[in-house]
Every structure is written in C-alpha cells, then in structure tokens.
Known about the structure:
The chain is α/β, with parallel strands linked by helices. Helix content is 46%, strand content 16%. It is built from nine helices and seven strands; from the N terminus they run E-H-E-H-E-H-E-H-E-H-H-E-H-H-H-E.
Amino acid sequence: MNILVTGASKGIGNAIARELQSAGEVFVTGRNEHALAACNVKGFCVCDLSKDINILAKFIEEKNIDVLINNAGEYIYGGLETMDIADIQRLYQTNLIAPAYLVSKAIPHMKGQRWGRIINIGSISGVMGEAYASIYSSSKSGLIGLTKALALELAEYNITVNTINPGWVETELGMSSIEESEFSKEEIIDTIPQKRFVKPEEVAKLCKYLISEDAKGITGQSINICAGLSVGI
C-alpha cells in the first residue's frame, strides 16, 4: 500500500504520516524539506500546492499511490471585503483545486487495480460556516461536495472517498487561527461541549480506520471529529 499525505511537515498531516507507517509505505509532501525528511518515511516531495502542483502530480503517478490523504490547507481570518484576489485564489487553489487535481492523477492507478482510498481533511467550518472565514469555510465545504460525487463515480472500483471534518485541533495552525480571531483560547474552549481541543492523533487514527478493509463500506461520508462542536450548545 503506497500512501501519500499532503501537508505532512507539521500538525494533523504529520500525525497522520506517523500513524500510517504501520499500514504501508508512506510518502509525504509539504513546503519544508527539513521537516519532511524528519518524518522518517519512504520518501517525500517538496511542493507548494498553491504554485507548483504539477511536481506533485507527477510524483503521484510515479509512486502508484493507492491511498491519497488531502490534508494540506490554509486559513485566513477576516471579512470578505478585506480579501484581495490573490488571497482568494491562493486559498481555493490550496484547499480545493489542488485536492481535486491530485485525486484526478491518483484515480487511473486506483481504477486499474480496482482498489483505493481517498480521504479529504475538511473542517467543521465547512459544515457549519465560520464568520470572518468565508473563503476557508467555502473551500472546505467544497471538499464535502467533491467527496460525495467522487464516491458515487468510484464505488464500483472498490475506491472509497470520505471527508474528515476536525473542529478545533491542538496544532500550530489551530492556535494561530485563535490568535488571529477576536476570541481567547478560554472563550473558544467554553463553546466546545467536551471543553477540550481535539488531538491530531485522533484524526490520524480515524484515517487509519478509514483506509482499512473494515471500513470498506464507508464512502461518500462527511465525518465530524470536533468534540461535539457541530451538535450545538
């Protein structure tokens, strides 16, 4: 099993890459070569998904990727009227266009062997919406629609496609997004039913289950792992 995890230099992606080493040959990609090398995996591809995506597309074809985990993402906090076209294009390119394009490059091999696993890491903001994060929320919501449609297209080939939607996760990105917002860490924790942040390892273990044969009947699903945040208050 050849597994590719995007955005694996830190946070959720790094936890996923480490967790899946017992499941197959893990390849990672990200912008930080030193951090990727430190993952101690089968191989890596240095790539910025907002710019040089064709480098990674070729890598996917060469490595015969069976399991693609689209984890890389970017976040911007602020009113839509404050965003310039470069910000909007960069976020959609990284969070939605790149995952779709990478899947398109992985599909031929998966179809050929009649087996594959595709997991898109979305966000609870794509399920519920997040004020002052409209571009991020809409890009992650797009992943859910992509997942549902692809699941239907690929079901007969024994390829499953699912989205995992983390809530507030204890990562560098999660903590920096709090700093950019108008709320304190304590105020945000108070809105979460379990009164805690999700650990990156929780997302990683869910990925490990979804790529297993035990989960072969789960496809086209949008799975929230958010400590109860999506349920209500």
